[in-house]
Amino acid sequence: MKHSQNLRSKRPAILAAGIATLIIALSGASSPAAVTYVGDAILNGTQTDQSGLPAIILEDGASPQNALNGIGSGLTYAGGNLFYGLCDRGPNKVVYSGGAAVDNTQSYDCRVQQLSINLTPIGSPDVNGKYASYAVGVTNPATTLLKNPSGTIYTGISSGIANGLRFDPEGVRVAPDGTFWVSDEYGPFVRHFNRQGQQIGVLTLPAGFTIANPDPKGANEIANNTSGRVNNKGMEGIAISPDGKTLVGIMQSPLIQDGGLASTNVRIVVWDLTNPTATPKQYLYQLDGTAFANSEILAVNNHKFIIDERDATAGNTCVKLLYQVDLNQATPPTNLATSSFPGTTAGNGMTPNIGTPAGVVPLTKTLFANVGQ
Known about the structure:
This protein is 2% helix and 35% strand. It starts with a strand and ends with a strand. It has 1 helix and 20 strands. β9 and β10 form a beta hairpin. The chain is an all-beta fold. The strands form 5 sheets. Strands 2-3-1-4 form a 4-stranded mixed sheet, with no helix packed on it. Strands 5-6-7-8 form a 4-stranded antiparallel sheet, with no helix packed on it.
């Protein structure tokens, strides 16, 4: 884990980046504090979670339904020492007989894990009262199953599309009232849950984000669609402003009609939660290259956000960058929803694939931290 040197901040927040998890304390100042590694902890993924589910073995023949694993798709601060760790569609790391038809996904009951994270200083503080390292303790006090409005638990298996229950949770944020939002990469959708994990609302993305021909197999989705999200690269991260009035979602990669994986032009969707049925705004965020994708977005204040942009490599040569964007930048970004590039069909996506489309002002990004070193 990584923690800001501003340890006494009253506004800690979480940014999850694949396997690596950052804890960033935001002071509220115009210039964020530096990010410094202070300690880490390991949760045993073979232990039982608090879901109360039976220990039945899933389709892969190896994974128990009630195991504490899969955490890392999203992580968010929920008050005190409590965080929500989001599991995605479940353990699909094992190739099993018959699994090719569903990309080796499982009948995994979707859930969020409550995590209690505690930092204990090691050694003595420096002259500024800061510690060089911490012992990080993590426990799992509760598990919340994610259910549809009728109370049926969502499932991670890709064939769940047949009954509307398939769910690939990727981003999670807690609202000021204690309810929480979860983005769904299968849809993509942004679903709203109460504290008990039952869905109480949904933000459907604009036309052009969903695919016309969903399929249990990702390769078929790629082959049979000319617009919408690229398979397994949907609404990867969400953020909610501190005042609870704005929800922002970022796509992991460009839409098919925007060039797909050959493009650097990614859409950010901004909803006004005081009028959630209104058409959301869309802004252009440009990746550093086609080898990059987005993993998370985090609110700094009501209009500034930090985006986790990264490559797909690990080790000393990996590139993991945190960029800050401001929706209120000096030259206002173009609202793509009301431009020549609404992206509603294959014919009005963003071109060129690389570079800025004519007449479009993208979000300006400023490097916040390089966390890949």
